[in-house]
Design goal:
It holds the Pfam family HTH_animal. The protein is an alpha/beta fold. The chain has helices at 3-26, 48-58, 113-130, 134-150, 155-166, 170-173, 200-215, 235-239, 315-327, 333-338; strands spanning 32-36, 39-43, 75-78, 81-86, 89-94, 187-188, 191-192, 225-226, 229-230, 251-252, 271-273, 280-282, 286-287, 292-300, 306-314, 352-359.
Length: 370
């Protein structure tokens, strides 16, 4: 579930859940109802037919909200836990998808030692909480050892972490842990981690009282510090970008601005053909009346003559100049083209077609001329 939409999903599912549970209380109530965001674990004791009717009713809450369900009499996965029924007793085990590669953080990663060394203990403690049978726990811990060894973790570190985790009784481990509130008097000192750096925490500890004394801000900045680290950019982050590139559409199009007269003459195409050589060329940019620093092609639909122009201005502004010169009978490319003998006496600029064919390379200093 994407973090960006998780909160929205929670609100929607909660509204649906309240309606469904309210309806269920009037009929048959489930033995267990557990939910995490949009994943729901339901233990039903009233038969499959009533369960299917319950799910069908839940899918009628809204025409665009539908629940997918998986029903089993023996075992069913819920998040990372496999819940099974054995001898009328519920048992839990670790559940991993077939596509899970167990590629935990590699031991050679450029991260602080305490960050890497805490991974085996955290994973072992997770198995203590999940696995309800001792035999299953031993099997999962053996698998965990092999996965961590494959990722370069020292065997002694793994064994020490597993031994530390097993010292905690499962009855204690499965209790909901309420973390203490973050100390409000701590000052975070964030720094990008580098193995060559000295021990920053010792430096902060030795210099903090001196700094606070001389800054005379003891009430605002107490002596307790917190030193989180930011990891160095890895190879994946350097080569892969999370932002998807927009599709590059090549060709011409009108700008569709309400008062633009050039839109009436511009051709919508991804290619243009020379009437002299007969060759066809591709347009490699996305061009319109608003494009500037362009090479453009003017063609007469009657005599098939073509003229090529170059302008640093926008195509709209440049063609407005052509139109003004034509209306005032000032000689320029358009006027010369329309005054050829092949044309009749009624010179009409609408006989022309304009095609921007290329755009010159732009730099950060380039701006469309005013």
């Amino acid at each position: 579930m994407a973090v960006v939409v998780a909160a929205v999903i929670v609100v929607v599912v909660t509204i649906v859940e309240m309606s469904v549970v309210s309806w269920a209380k009037q009929t048959d109530k489930s033995l267990v109802w557990l939910r995490y965001i949009d994943n729901i674990l339901l233990i039903w004791t009233h038969g499959r037919a009533k369960l299917e009717a319950f799910i069908a009713n839940a899918n009628t809450f809204h025409p665009t909200i539908k629940f997918t369900s998986s029903i089993s009499d023996t075992q069913i996965p819920f998040l990372d836990v496999m819940v099974s029924l054995q001898n009328n007793t519920l048992h839990t085990d670790l559940y991993s998808k077939l596509t899970d590669t167990f590629n935990y953080l590699h031991w050679s990663s450029c991260l602080p030692f305490h960050t890497k060394s805490s991974i085996p203990y955290s994973l072992a403690f997770r198995l203590i909480r999940i696995c309800s049978c001792e035999e299953t726990l031993i099997h999962r811990l053996t698998e965990l050892t092999e996965h961590l060894k494959r990722r370069g973790f020292p065997l002694k570190l793994i064994q020490k972490a597993i031994h530390k985790a097993k010292e905690i009784p499962r009855s204690t481990a499965i209790q909901r842990c309420r973390l203490p509130e973050t100390q409000k008097d701590r000052i975070p000192f964030v720094i990008t981690y580098n193995p060559a750096l000295p021990i920053i925490s010792s430096i902060l500890k030795n210099t903090s009282p001196f700094s606070i004394y001389h800054l005379d801000v003891e009430e605002q900045y107490p002596t307790s510090q917190w030193q989180p680290s930011i990891h160095q950019k890895n190879l994946w982050e350097s080569l892969v970008h999370a932002n998807l590139q927009k599709a590059h559409i090549c060709g011409n199009r009108p700008c569709n601005i309400r008062r633009c007269l050039t839109c009436r003459l511009i051709t919508t195409a991804s290619q243009f053909t020379s009437t002299v050589t007969g060759k066809t060329y591709n347009i490699l940019h996305n061009l319109s009346c608003d494009s500037y620093n362009i090479i453009y092609l003017i063609a007469c639909t009657k005599c098939k003559k073509q003229s090529v122009g170059l302008t640093p201005q926008t195509l709209r502004k440049r063609f407005n100049t052509h139109r003004s010169n034509f209306n005032n009978q000032r000689g320029d490319t358009v006027g010369l083209l329309l005054n050829l003998p092949e044309h009749d006496i009624k010179h009409d600029i609408s006989q022309l077609q304009v095609t921007p064919v290329d755009q010159l390379k732009k730099t950060r200093h380039d701006r469309p001329p005013k």
